[in-house]
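Narrative of accomplishments. A recurring question from our advisory board has been how the design workflow behaves on a single, concrete structure rather than in aggregate. To address it, we present the structure tokens for one chain from the evaluation set, followed by the sequence designed for it. No filtering or post-editing was applied between the two.
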């Protein structure tokens, strides 16, 4: 590692206590975290200066480690100050501006040596080593429990930010070769049991769907896995972040369907009807009747879906989330 780089990178490792920051009440821990957050701004400035002055000396591993450290601050998290976010973005942009014909190799380095080790102890039970959907879950009936118990990635609070950065910088024609490195951490976030991680996973999937070829999703069978996970998000109705999750999941589901089905096909129509009929009407409107914020979030998510259904909306015209008394109801009037 380049001289002077290692101590800077070590200083930028986000403390594991931020994983459960909302539950921390110990004053000494809070003081330590605040001191670290303040010092991170200074260290990021030093890191950016080193990058500008010695960029030609940095190995691919050094470059990936710098991106990894800076990307941890590329979010709205408790450890990120506005100044840190701006400085980190500048360091990432400075590095990205140097990418040449081998910039996909640098992304491969980042995915292989900085991201995969975080998730390797919790392999997704429905994915094989190539990132394809398995015919049946690996590990038997306890596979899901094993998947949740091996979540060492949660000790790295910036992991989701790093995965998001990698996805946003993956170009369309790179997905074929990088699929086995990209999809496991994305699905790990999507299928987590905590809503906050599900929400990050859905956001990253939405980012991925802007570039990933539909054929890669279909050929690997991951389109079905993502669709199932997004449908599952619509059943998490009792969390503070549920409204955001509902809006994000409906939007991502719609994008996925439009990307992986042909315009006007029966597959597309059926999937859109299932999303509206089973996911929203008979799902959210029935089981979230005591949570108007969740119902409102589902209503906000409807316009693009209704536009995509076109004449297919006719079958749902008599359905309303409210009855005449103002109570939530998914029954036909």
């Amino acid at each position: 590692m380049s001289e002077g780089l290692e101590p800077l990178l070590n200083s930028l490792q986000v403390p594991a206590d931020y994983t459960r920051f909302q539950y921390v009440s110990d004053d000494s821990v809070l003081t330590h975290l605040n001191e670290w957050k303040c010092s991170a701004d200074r260290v990021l400035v030093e890191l950016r200066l080193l990058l500008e002055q010695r960029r030609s000396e940095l190995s691919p591993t050094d470059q990936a480690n710098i991106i990894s450290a800076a990307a941890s601050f590329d979010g709205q998290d408790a450890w990120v100050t506005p100044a840190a976010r701006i400085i980190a973005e500048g360091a990432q942009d400075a590095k990205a501006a140097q990418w040449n014909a081998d910039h996909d190799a640098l992304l491969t380095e980042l995915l292989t040596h900085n991201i995969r080790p975080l998730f390797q102890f919790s392999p997704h039970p429905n994915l094989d080593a190539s990132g394809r959907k398995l015919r049946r879950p690996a590990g038997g009936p306890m596979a899901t429990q094993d998947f949740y118990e091996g979540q060492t990635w949660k000790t790295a609070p910036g992991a989701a930010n790093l995965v998001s950065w990698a996805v946003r910088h993956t170009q369309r024609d790179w997905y074929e070769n990088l699929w086995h490195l990209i999809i496991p951490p994305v699905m790990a976030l999507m299928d987590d049991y905590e809503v906050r991680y599900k929400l990050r996973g859905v956001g990253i999937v939405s980012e991925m769907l802007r570039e990933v070829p539909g054929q890669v999703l279909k050929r690997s069978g991951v389109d079905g896995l993502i669709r199932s996970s997004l449908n599952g998000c619509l059943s998490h109705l009792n969390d503070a972040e549920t409204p955001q999750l509902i809006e994000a999941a409906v939007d991502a589901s719609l994008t996925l369907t439009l990307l992986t089905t042909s315009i006007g096909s029966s597959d597309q129509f059926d999937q859109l009807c299932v999303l509206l009929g089973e996911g929203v009407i008979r799902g959210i409107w029935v089981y979230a009747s005591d949570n108007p914020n969740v119902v409102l979030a589902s209503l906000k998510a409807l316009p693009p879906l209704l536009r995509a259904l076109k004449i297919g909306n006719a079958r749902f015209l008599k359905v309303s989330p409210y009855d005449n008394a103002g109570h939530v109801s998914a029954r036909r009037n």
